């Protein structure tokens, strides 16, 4: 009945442990104290009270759970939800664009983390057309002021929605009947970045009301921000004639989030809730760079893979300036209706809702060859982790560009994506007295989820192409990576002129695809409590029917004009057990075991035959990408055992060992130098295109990338945690995680046998002080190197070097109702450094991604926020 690879022996050990302690003992007496009665009710206000509630949530849970609570209405421990998650042992956060965006748990990749909002899914799409369509949630969409608390489930249980091999994060918003009537919060902050050198506004607010009978309440919360974000760095150009690119990425981030929650409780036993959530994100951006081609004879030293790492340029260098500009926006809307009915002999609760998201990315390109080749004379040192330039001229303005220029006619695109889920959850709980079993829980869940990716090429009327002086498109200058100064683009004008020559769009069949999943789940779970042992034991059955629409591709490279559909299905039994044993009044032994799954990323499931790089004017990067709707999910058996000592109401120390045995993997395999019957255009605009990897005159030369199932892989590690608070107002917490996440290197095209996003070592150090009027906290988060995998996309697979962030926050209460706040993130301005580390046997075509070549580096930015907050 159970999945074949479930470790029954370990499950039997845990069952035996329960039985030996009286699992089959006498019926629980009615007067016996339950665990829930021991939970201390805490009015959360301040750092210490929040930490105490977090301990309560962890201590009295039957599962392996970590909790983060808001310190007050509108006041989360960090200004970024992702950063707060990063304080939890075993959790690592990706900060690719300056914010905590994606979360990985216990060595598993971010795509193996399930995120729920108040227990339900939240639809989201990407604002960046270079990112894959995956299942991870972008936490930068969610303002911390809207969040009341976070729960991170590291163990599974049968009534928990499946999908998280790493773990499940539940984000809880506030509800009106839980707050005092007429609770009010209003805050405003100025957000300053040390690279953008802009002070930007953030405003947020919350109002909660309920009637005198406390039977009806309504809460409205919202947040708005407009941030000028800038990321300076140096990027590799994928082996393009040795080109390296000092670059600056500028983004106008406009975020609006609104949550409306209503509750109606007509009787003590019946409660209805309705929640409306809107998340809007504007992300217009421009990536400006100068690609420096050093020319023949400039190389003075190579690394083991033959890449040049030392150059001396003398009259051979050329420069190509370009700006990729994108008008990007994304919105997510959720309507969720829930209910709870408590009868004498059962509890029935459920929810029904719909969540949908849409994104739109309009792309344009402005690129020109620059004059004054003598500007590039000098040296380029690529022997270290960061490329170092010493050139004759590293400061440019619009005068370096042609006197007139316009948008490139080959580049405009329109890429809309969508994501939607309609769901129904039904849950029953029946109190029983069967030995140590005190309740039986059972339920049903159905979700219909559809994802659509689309791509459209512009119908360009060349006669309408605007031509302007370069100074109109680049009216100023901006600091960039490597100590360069580049012409600064006028994003709005660039988009407007590209649209002016565009007369509609034509769908690209290679870019269109859908994935629709119908997911059904049934579960039954028993809660038990006897003789100092408590927990749950259950099984969840899941069934998935999946289909993908696409335009098929013939052997001669011609796309069909009608859609084809591929279908598949799979089902799994997912047993689980959680056991908590009271070794003493303040010491707990905790163990769990479960079979878990994570569904494949949508990018891997799209049956689309995509000819990537076919018309982008970049040489030797043409890839035929194919997904596979028939992929089996990631599957793993996981278990852990830990001991927790709560040596005071504010303090604990714990040690946990965990293991995950991954039996089914999903990987992307690539074959280079393949002939598929389609000739690649020869771009006369690009004199540095070079010779085809298949040989001179071979225009049919492709990398073929396909999604497949692999096998094997394991994660093994430990978590150590300690926290305490003192009567003098000081307190601290610290945790360390070791996660050894290994997989056969054949699962990855880079031939590096390490899980994506997995850091072997992670630690957090937090110290704080708090009194009646003032609180301050200093926190340091550090993670060791980890692999980022984005192949076959432009950025490829590479290793991000170790990264640490020192953060500080403080609050001064001017009155009982008025606070002044200060936050500082990444105070040491830690750089993001990414090196090529692909194995020499890789099938990936980019030679820069070998032997620690410095492929990407981005300058660290500190961000400071000063604000005031009003609370009643």
Task: Write up this protein.
With 872 residues, the protein is mainly β. The protein has a single domain (44-223, 231-871), classed as Maltoporin, Chain A (Beta Barrel), CATH 2.40.170. It is built from 7 helices and 45 strands. It has a 22-stranded antiparallel β-barrel. Strands 1-5-6-4 form a 4-stranded mixed sheet. A hairpin with a 7-residue loop joins strand 2 and strand 3 (102-105). The longest helix has 13 residues, at 8-20. The two termini are 56 Å apart. Keywords: Cell outer membrane, Membrane, Signal, TonB box, Transmembrane, Transmembrane beta strand, Transport. Residues 61-168 form the TonB-dependent receptor plug domain. Pfam families: Plug (PF07715), TonB_dep_Rec_b-barrel (PF00593).
How are the elements arranged and paired?
Layout (H helix, E strand, L loop, with lengths): L7 H13 L14 H4 L8 H13 L5 E5 L11 H6 L4 E4 L7 E4 L7 E5 L29 E7 L13 E7 L9 E11 L5 E12 L5 E21 L7 E24 L2 E24 L5 E4 L5 E6 L4 E25 L4 E23 L8 E4 L6 E4 L12 E2 L7 E22 L2 E17 L2 E5 L7 E2 H4 L2 E4 L5 E4 L2 H10 L1 E6 L5 E18 L2 E21 L5 E26 L2 E12 L3 H4 L3 E4 L10 E4 L7 E15 L2 E24 L27 E10 L2 E12 L4 E13 L18 E10 L3 E10 L2 E4 L7 E4 L2 E11 L4 E8 L6 E4 L20 E3 L4 E9 L1
Number of structural units classed as domains? 1
Shape: globular
CATH topology: Maltoporin, Chain A
- The chain-level mean pLDDT equals 87
Compute the CA-based radius of gyration.
28 Å
Oligomeric description of these chains: single chain
Instruction: Tell how many strands the DSSP assignment holds.
Output: 45
Largest sheet entry? 22 strands, antiparallel, barrel
Number of helices: 7
Structural class by helix and strand composition: mainly beta
Low-confidence stretches: 1-43, 683-689
CATH evolutionary superfamily: TonB-dependent receptor, beta-barrel domain
Beta-strand content estimate: over 45%
- CATH C-level name: Mainly Beta
CATH architecture level-2 label:
Beta Barrel
User: Roughly what percent helix?
Assistant: under 10%
